[in-house]
Amino acid sequence: MAMVRLVACFVLYTSLGHIPSSLGVILRTTDKIVWANEFEPIELTCLIESISTNNPRIEWKKIKNGVPSYVYFQNKIAGDLENRAQLREPANILIFNTTRSDTAEYRCEVAAIDDQRDFDEILISLAVRVKPVVPRCSVPEAVTVGTSTELRCLENEGFPAPQYRWFHNNEELPQDPKNSPKFVNSSYTINPDTGGLKFQRVRKEDAGEYYCQAKNDAGHAQCSPQMMEVYDIDILGIFLKSFAAVAVFFCLAACICHSLKRGCFHKKSHSENNYNWPSQTDASYRDADEGHFRHKSSFVI
Ligand SMILES: *[C@@H]1O[C@H](CO)[C@@H](O)[C@H](O)[C@H]1NC(C)=O
Ligand SMILES: *[C@@H]1O[C@H](CO)[C@@H](O)[C@H](O)[C@H]1NC(C)=O
């Protein structure tokens, strides 16, 4: 009997002993790390587990790059979230339309003056996913069979950083060509992190339309298809070489012509024994400098 009484006493004592500690403010959140999609609403939860103060002071701060600023202060939404958020019972913050600049840490702080433990805070980190924009793709127009080449794809807006996939004639290129009967003889490798599609040795069958897709959890975007031609022989090289040869020929011809003209002109000017005439004919040849010519000729006349 004495034992039972002792146990009862102990239970009463310990439960009484717990009462003061529950007279303190304790916060809780459903998610310490929150992901949201850009342009969608998101609620950061700040739940009050226990409190005895009637009107606790609630504040929210945004901490970006280590710099805190108020987003809820003196019962008003302020700073970066002004007109874009609202406080919801008990102390949650609801952002109506998140933007990428909302990615930051947020701290809910509750001060309860009548509680023994009169302050608690909770830190939540918010990451806003951003849909990729149309990636920039570079596909060579023409390559020669047997040479190596690289197709590139780059997208800078998406968050988290997107993964890249490549399509050949509207069919996705498998990560590893060795695993696909259709592409088993192709020599390409894809780097899904950098967007590179590299061919060790281009084959005739690799010709076609290519486009790339950038994708993350928020969405995806792709560039428009671009044609890659594959030539048996180095047609491009031959074209460039013949173009260079033609250019050199015209340059030489122009040079020769020019020096011949000058030679003729010099003869002419020497044959006419007048000091005024050469300057006039000289000016009339330089038809590019017309204003100058007019000035000169009026002076001569
Ligand atoms: C969110 O904001 C963006 C840009 O500020 C706007 O285009 C979009 O319509 C907004 N969405 C909603 C649901 O208000
Ligand atoms: C791949 O190469 C092998 C050997 O040259 C050939 O037998 C096979 O038909 C080729 N496969 C494709 C899909 O081109």
Automatic annotation (TrEMBL):
- Organism expressing this protein natively: Parambassis ranga
Which keywords, in A-to-Z order, does the entry hold? Answer: Cell junction, Cell membrane, Disulfide bond, Immunoglobulin domain, Membrane, Signal, Tight junction, Transmembrane, Transmembrane helix
Q: Where in the cell is it found?
A: Cell junction, Tight junction; Cell membrane
Q: Which GO terms describe its biological process?
A: cell migration
Protein name in the entry: Junctional adhesion molecule C
Q: Where is the Ig-like domain?
A: 20-125, 132-228
Report which residue ranges the record marks as coiled coil: none
Asked if the keyword Disulfide bond belongs to this entry, the reply reads yes
Molecular-function GO term, any one: cell-cell adhesion mediator activity
Q: Which PROSITE patterns match?
A: IG_LIKE (PS50835)
Which InterPro entries does the entry link to? Answer: Ig-like_dom (IPR007110), Ig-like_dom_sf (IPR036179), Ig-like_fold (IPR013783), Ig_sub (IPR003599), Ig_sub2 (IPR003598), JAM-C (IPR042974)
